[in-house]
Model the fold of this input.
Amino acid sequence: MEQPNNLIIAMQNGDEKAFSNLYTMYSEAVYGIIYSIVLDENTAEELLQDVFVKVWNNATSYSVKKGRFFTWLLNIARNAAIDETRSKAFKNRRKNLNITNFVDILTSSDSLNRATNAIGLKKFVEALKPACIKIIDLLYFKGFTQAEASKTLDLPIGTIKTRNRTCINELREMVLG
Amino acid sequence: MTPEEIIASGNLELYVCGALSPEEATEVEQAIAAHPEVKREVELIEESLILLAETVAPPVSAMVWTYILDSIRNVRDDGNGKVRKLNWPAITGWAAAILFLGGIMWMLKQTNDLNDALQVTTTQNTILKEEKSTVESKLAENDKTLEILRSRDYRTYTLPGNQAVAPEAFAKVYLHNKENVAYIDVSGLPTPPRGKVYQVWSLKMEPLTPTSVGLIDPVNKTAENLYRFVDFPMPEAIGITLEPEGGSDTPTLSQLYTLGMITL
Done:
């Protein structure tokens, strides 16, 4: 998918319609990232709101010449969600400790969203190898650096990088065909 | 690095995840700009990762977008300050508060004015009361005087002025011969000069013996210009002289103002 630079620039110039289109395109993925970190729908919805208000208010701090728009969104969303998990209120509230990664969420969830149902992605994602689930969870969903992932998984940095590529390739073949 | 090497390096996946160092990210951006196949590869990685995140997301409530829209519109309005709606409830509230305060101030002023007026009236009343009591006491005094003058127990004598000293002067004497009380009215005498005082003398003729009866002095005063003397010896004549303050033992005849015979 080519990045919608026209919409992004229009939003940066204060175009609400463009912002609305971008929300439609990216909000579900952003929500998935936030939810995989906070594991609570109400908290995740609040954070999703906060993140997009932040996107609008700080739209000009992103440049289409530097980095992917989605990666920029991803950083804002992960930071907001991780900040939330560090708050005392959140720690008191958190109950479900069985869920540790995105596949656990899929497995334990009964209510699936539009995208998951329509394309039937659930079974593909669940088919990912455990090693892939771990590495994608850390680098993509949790925003770990390569060094942090290397330490957590007890693997050399070079292995982290190549395994991540292999796993995402597998994912691509499954979900994009 | 060739485009193929970059694609195979694993850096593009890390780039989309946001896990590359700034230097490596810059390299990737240069490769994306230079090679369409690198750009295409990045787009495919991104698309599959977006789909992955979407599968994990619970259904999104439509309220989220409504809330976002509300938030950014409020921020916009505050920022521009162009579209400023009048807050009528607040304006009405403030107006009412100001009116109410004004009303209270007005009423306070009214109360103050009334208090001032009341004080003035009270003062005037006091003055009038004092005047009234003065008038009453004066009236009582006059009544008493009149009583004396009307009484038949008192006999009235007029002491004519001494031709040599004060031809116009005169004094009136009211004498109660049984009780030896006399009232002397000196309104016919000129006001004595400073340091001088009138002295009343009772006179026996043969031989001529003056006896001081007393001074025309506030001690003896009973009413305006009317002086009372008790133990008044029954004289044959009464004279009034002007003497130095405190009186004299013998009358200064050169200063004899009035002299009159008394016929009992």
Remarks:
- Chain B touches chain A through 44 residues (CB under 8 Å).
- The domain at 154-261 of chain B is CATH 2.60.40 (Immunoglobulin-like).
- The CA atoms of residues 117 and 146 of chain B lie 42 Å apart.
- The first strand of chain B starts at residue 154 and ends at 160.
